[in-house]
Amino acid sequence: MFIGARYVEQRVADAVLGAGYDDLTPAMARAAARLGDDGIRVTELAEQARITKQSASVLVDQLERCGYVERVPDPSDARARLVVIAPRGREVQRLARKEERAIEREWRRHLGAERMAALQDALVALREITDPYAP
Questions:
Q1: Transmembrane stretches, by residue range (predicted)?
Q2: Considering the domain boundaries, does residue 53 fall inside one?
């Protein structure tokens, strides 16, 4: 599983870099990948990424300076801030999703529709017991 995940991550990173987003480091990309449409607090990002709050703050600072994210007031707590994807971050996200779809098509051609469906079903089922942050 690690080899497949590493392959996908590298392919997406190469596509992003090839499109001119050369200021986005792998660490920044991994942090940004955890951002949902509703945003996330830095403390939650740190917990999910399994890094310190300080490291998460540094990554968010870098992402913000590069225009990939913004910090906005948290509507549920006036004292807190949420990290949300900025328009430039949405551009990269669209590019990443496009590359992921291309990989999925390649894997489907290689495995065949039935085996690919079985792989996807198995991975979704495993997420239920391995991902405490699954929606």
A1: none
A2: yes
Phi-psi region of 20 (alpha: psi -120 to 50; beta: other; left: phi over 0): left
Q: Can you tell me the distance from the alpha carbon of 122 to that of 7, in angstroms, rounded to the nearest whole number?
A: 19
* 35-69 per-position pLDDT tens digit: 988 999 999 999 999 999 999 999 999 999 999 99
Q: Which helix (H) or strand (E) holds 117?
A: helix 113-130
In a domain, 16, yes or no: yes
The pTM of the full predicted model, rounded to 2 decimals, is 0.87
pLDDT score at 71: 96
Residue 135 lies inside a defined structural domain of this protein: no
Range of the domain at 84: 2-130
- Are 57 and 42 in contact by the 8 Å Cβ rule? The answer is yes
CATH of the domain at 120: 1.10.10.10
Q: Are 23 and 66 in contact (CB under 8 A)?
A: yes
Cα 53-54-59 angle, rounded to 5 deg: 95
* Token pair 């405490």 in the structure block, residue: 132
> Number of folded domains in the chain?
1
- Helix (H) / strand (E) element for 36: namely none
Residue 81, beta-bridge partner list: 73
